[in-house]
Write a structure and sequence with these properties.
conserved putative lor/sdh protein from methanococcus maripaludis s2 fold; four-stranded antiparallel sheet; Elongation Factor Tu (Ef-tu), domain 3
């Protein structure tokens, strides 16, 4: 009796196992066949690229003049408002002119005396010139008269020069603006004593429109630029003047475009850099002297630039750049390349790539050299994923899941 029960249990177990195996095989279905790995590629196309470099620097006024007195004296009045705009020739300070007016009057008196003396000496010289011809006077007396005339003329010329000097000194008591621009604070007040050509400036005038921007570039970068121009990797965009754009301290772009004027002919030994000067219009006077700015200088233009995405370029242990390319037989080829510089998120390639090459940018870990791959354009969804329809839940699935519970209800009722 025990053996019969054991056989029935074994038979039921085998039937149950066979049913579960068939159900699992029915759910899993046949295994899909493995194809070549799928990679995303970017097709290389030549394009026009303007090459720029960003350099930091400072703004400087177009004209700057320090106002200093050319004569000494007491400042009677300051005739300008600090921080205002002044024009060339405008009176800024008035120095006490009393002593200079007296000096001018004295010089004029000396000139008048010299003129009177000259009149007498000239008449005497003319008479002696006539008398010496008839032997009425000696030749020596005539020579003395002629020499006295020349001396009187020289004294008159000196007197006139003294008058002019006194007049200039009197004019210098009115300290005027040498240039037009914005004047800063005054270093002296009314009643201060000033001296001629003193080291301390009375005020400083700066012309703010246009405005210079002085930036520095390393000599190594300058040499690399000249080599690239000589090799033909890119050409000068503007043969006359390079254009420059400006970024302010807060990162906002300056609305006006400037031009590169010149570069220094010597290298600063302490920094190894060269100073470049650009000129920017400043109609709104947004730029002030001494501001920190960043200038974007146009170095050149490459009409047929080859750009490779940075994500598609790797480095060997020796530091050489390598790009994985899908070849003609749809196989992966490692391609050594020579890069010049970065342009945005790409490398500017000098050698190693040509138009039409397909550079792998995604799936590089599955793309081994020499293995076949399936190339799809970068940014396009894979074909399998694009053609797959969403799976709708089958209606019998829910009742099938509920069958065990329904089958258990009679058992519970029997209990």
């Amino acid at each position: 009796m025990f053996q019969i029960k054991t056989r029935r249990v074994l038979a039921a177990t085998l039937l149950l196992t066979a049913g579960l195996t068939a159900a699992c095989n029915k759910k899993q279905g046949p295994m899909p066949q493995q194809g070549p790995p799928e990679v995303s590629v970017v097709t290389i196309q030549p394009q026009r690229v303007a090459l720029t470099t960003e350099l930091s620097g400072r703004t400087a006024p177009f004209l700057i003049a320090e106002v200093r007195p050319q004569v000494g004296g007491i400042v009677k009045k300051r005739l300008f408002t600090e921080g205002s705009d002044v024009t060339a020739g405008q009176v800024l300070y008035q120095i006490d002119p009393a002593s200079y007016e007296a000096a001018l009057a004295s010089a004029k008196a000396t000139q008048a005396r010299a003129e009177a003396t000259l009149t007498t000496v000239r008449l005497k010289a003319e008479r002696y010139r006539e008398l010496v011809q008839v032997k009425a006077v000696s030749q020596q007396d005539n020579d003395d008269a002629q020499a006295g005339l020349k001396q009187a003329e020289a004294e008159l010329a000196a007197a006139k020069a003294a008058v002019e000097t006194a007049r200039i000194n009197l004019a210098y008591t009115r300290v005027t603006a040498p240039i037009s621009g914005r004047i800063g604070r005054s270093s002296i007040t009314d009643g201060a004593l000033v001296t001629a050509s003193q080291p301390t400036a009375l005020a400083t005038i700066q012309q703010l429109s246009p405005m210079y921007v002085d930036v520095t570039q390393s000599s190594a970068e300058l040499l690399a630029l000249k080599k690239n121009l000589a090799s033909g990797h890119f050409k000068k965009g503007n043969q006359h003047q390079a254009t420059v754009k400006l970024l302010l301290e807060d990162g906002t772009p300056y609305p006006q475009t400037g031009t590169l004027k010149f570069s220094e002919v010597t290298v600063d030994q302490s920094t190894g850099s060269v100073t470049l000067r650009a000129l920017f219009p400043n109609p709104q006077q947004l730029l002030l002297p001494g501001m920190f700015v960043r200038a974007v200088v146009e170095e050149g233009v490459n009409e047929q630039a080859i750009l490779a995405p940075q994500r598609g370029v790797t480095r060997t242990p020796q530091g050489a750049a390598v790009a994985m390319v899908v070849g003609a037989e749809e196989k992966v080829e490692p391609r050594p390349i020579t890069v010049v510089r970065t342009v945005g998120d790409s490398w500017l390639v000098a050698e190693g790539l040509k138009p039409g090459d397909r550079v792998i940018v995604e799936g590089i870990q599955r793309a081994r050299p020499g293995t076949p791959v399936k190339a799809v354009p970068f940014g396009v969804a894979p074909a399998a994923a694009a053609g797959q329809q969403p799976v709708k839940p089958q209606q019998p699935a829910a009742p099938a899941a509920q069958q065990p519970a329904a089958a258990q209800q009679p058992a519970a009722a029997k209990k």
